């Protein structure tokens, strides 16, 4: 299975992030919302918390969450984004503290979606229910 990103399908910041990735990953990732059937299956399969408040990347059977997930994603984007991996030198606790702060406020700062946008014809095959 191709690497898959699980994202909050109700979050404007998350949707914007998915659109950003789609333009820069050369078709590397698949996508599923945390709330969807595939997302819930993968959360259970990898024994992740059901109330997960994080983007998740599952690559080669390994789930990455929070700042590890964000940095894992940048490894496969075009441009200078792979250089972000330098932040791995920071302690995970510090990176996740910043991640958690943004995650806690994302709905207030960026809003929530009332309905999901449908992917374009070109990207539809990369999304799971």
Automatic annotation (TrEMBL):
Pfam families: DCC1-like
A molecular function (GO) term: protein-disulfide reductase activity
Protein name per its UniProtKB record: Putative thiol-disulphide oxidoreductase DCC
